[in-house]
Specification:
By secondary structure, the chain is an all-alpha fold. It is 70% helix and 0% strand. Helix 1 packs across helix 2, helix 6 packs parallel to helix 9 and helix 8 packs antiparallel against helix 9. The relative contact order is 0.09.
Length: 223
């Protein structure tokens, strides 16, 4: 590699270290003290940089705090690309999520320190929840493109990729919500399996016991 290439690589590594240091500072400060009691200036000071440097990497303290989970959507999508081409799209999405949960090389949420605390906090803080929602939406847009490629179709003309991802991501979101509200940090894989089972189980085949079927004539008396 030439000198210019070495210089570019060193700068890239330095930028990555700076970003990671800022993200770690935000993560620790916010989880220790709460989102509202931490300022951007304090995050920058903890990372030993100035406010201007913080702003080069993050638009807000919420974005910095959530940087530790931003890559998880990419990992799910990488697993989705790697699924066998003959798998049905929703099955492929489900197994991609399960591959992410079980990956020994990159720990998923339930195996990373304090991620559970972070997502509990996101349920409580509207601005943090909104920032997390944007991360999910970005990942889902990529998922739609991957599913469309698997189907050999144009997602602008064919609704199936979007429906597949909406169903799969909805199952994951439901499992996540149950996880952070349930108080059992190790339960995420079981809840994910349960959520995906619901997509193909009795919710699609029969009404729960005691449920009445809908009728356009309900409430009308017969003559």
């Amino acid at each position: 590699m030439n000198r210019d290439g070495n210089t570019t690589e060193r700068r890239s590594r330095k930028a990555r270290r700076t970003r990671d240091t800022l993200a770690r500072a935000a993560f620790e400060l916010v989880l220790d003290r709460g989102l509202r009691d931490v300022t951007v200036e304090e995050i920058a000071e903890r990372a030993d940089v100035d406010r201007r440097t913080f702003s080069r990497y993050f638009t807000s303290k919420e974005a910095a705090v959530l940087d530790s989970v931003r890559g998880d959507g990419d990992r799910i999508n990488d697993a989705l690309r790697a699924r066998p081409a003959d798998e049905p799209p929703l099955t492929a999405y489900r197994r991609a999520v399960l591959d992410w949960l079980a990956d020994p090389e990159a720990a998923a949420w339930h195996r990373r320190p304090r991620i559970y605390e972070l997502l509990v906090l996101a349920e409580q803080e509207p601005t943090l929840y909104a920032a997390f929602h944007h991360i999910r939406v970005d990942a889902q847009e990529d998922s739609v493109a991957i599913v469309a490629q698997r189907l050999g179709t144009d997602p602008r003309q064919d609704i199936r990729p979007a429906v597949t991802v909406a169903a799969g991501a909805g199952a994951l979101l439901a499992a996540q919500a149950a996880w952070v509200r349930g108080g059992c940090p190790d339960e995420l894989p079981r809840l994910v399996e349960q959520a995906f089972d619901a997509l193909s189980g009795e919710l699609l085949t029969r009404l729960p016991a005691g449920a009445a079927s809908h009728s356009t004539t309900e409430g009308n008396s017969t003559s």
